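Hey,
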Amino acid sequence: MQKKIFYLHVAKTAGTSINRYISSHYLMEDCVTHVENDPLWSTQNKHKYENKSFISGHVSFVRFLQVFNRSDYYTFATFRNPIDHVISHLAWVRHLCDPGKESFLAGHPEWVQDVSRKLTTVDFSNPDQLHDFASNLSPMESAIFDNSQTRYLLAIPGHQLVTRPKLAEALQNLDSLSLIGLTEFYSESMALLSKDMGWELPLHGERLNEGATKYNLDGSRLEIRQALKPLIWADNHIYAQAKHRFFNRIEALLRPDKEVDISNNPNGYSIPKSRGVFDVCTTHLLAGWIIIENNPLASVYLRISVNDGACIYFIKADKYRKDIKDKAIHPTGFCGFSLKFSNDAALKKGDMITVTFMGNNQSLFGQPKVVV
């Protein structure tokens, strides 16, 4: 029997899109998102959730494992580059006090409203003001902004700051997750999830929208990143380990017969030497073949990008190519890829198509191919 899914919904990491995608594979009554909306989810109402196929929420991972049987669940979480994450989080809380948001603000707890009002007095473009805020958090502000991604992997009171011993505990809990995804590689993360759950590919990827305004909070400025460092020092460690795990999974798809270690290449994975041809690129069909030269039987997952990511697809190169087998290029011939488009979803002549290994941006067939 397939395991149930628990998605640890870390705020501001594309969780709404992920909840929607996972829920699409189950009946509505078998899914519960935002379980934290029930204050009794882990006590008196636990029985309401034990038989659900999919549960997600802004809750402590430790608390979930204390309530439910770990062996019954496939556990999954996504993490985000910490500087981008904290900027998004600060801007979101700040926007509650924007003109026209009065009723939305009133729907939040009084303490959240107070934090939002305080943020309106902080000049987000001023590193000194940001550093002063980040270094002097109130207990309630700590619960929201102090290494908030790390906190999801712990069970600590909101007023308590994350410490180095707690970071070590969080890293251990991170390693116990069944799958770790990255917001920056959202579509690839969903493709890995689909593979693990046996869901059908191709998977149509999403390009996630950025928030409307960051109130001049520019993470590209070194002085801004330094000012916010007290809020993300532990998250930086969590993200580095999450990134390592994620790219290990990606590379393992290409090198299933080898033990994978990307410690010397923490920003991605080494691209194996490949051979192939992208031989059809029309409005209704993309097709070709590809093999890993030193491991021809490896499962190859491809990312097909239309017009620099305006639309993304994921497919497995496992279609039978008699011509490739007959030429003794591949031992079985199951190395082809094809992606068909119906009339209402057809590509346009002149569209630019780039094919890469999943999780990598380097084109496999030279320059992008033009649809004809």
